[in-house]
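Z., the sequence and structure:
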Amino acid sequence: MDIDTHEAFKRYPPPPLSDIPRIAQETVDAYEVVRWGVRKLMRKYAVKACGYCSEVHVGPWGHNAKLCGEFKHQWRDGKHGWQDATVEEVIPPNYVYHLRDPKGPPLRNALKRFYGKAPAVVEACLQAGAKVPDKYKPMMRLDIVIPDSDESRLVA
């Protein structure tokens, strides 16, 4: 067993295996509800994101603190380039490669252009038994047949 910080495993036992697909589906649904709620709030309240770095500012204008240290920041004297933010800038998804068979062979670097990607939350829930939301299916490339490594050089 992993490190048990403050005896958390004693206080919160792991769920039964029969509950894991239900928990995974609830997690995917909650992730979508949070993204939907943030999008709705962003219509009411102004959210700005720097076009150069990953900083986000909630409010009608971005601040004037000269803290932007991204590429060529000295040309702008460290000023941010504020623009309207997107949901992906407020809740940045961490994209991971989609594993079709988690117990299968590991992904191969030579075939990485054939593998699809999904947000890590969605991929974890998918492996736990949740259904894939339709909006993630195209980016997960479920319709592509992954060739053998020697066939990959024949593919255009």
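The chain has a mean pLDDT of 83. Residues 134 and 140 are 10 Å apart (CA to CA).

Let me know what you think.
H.
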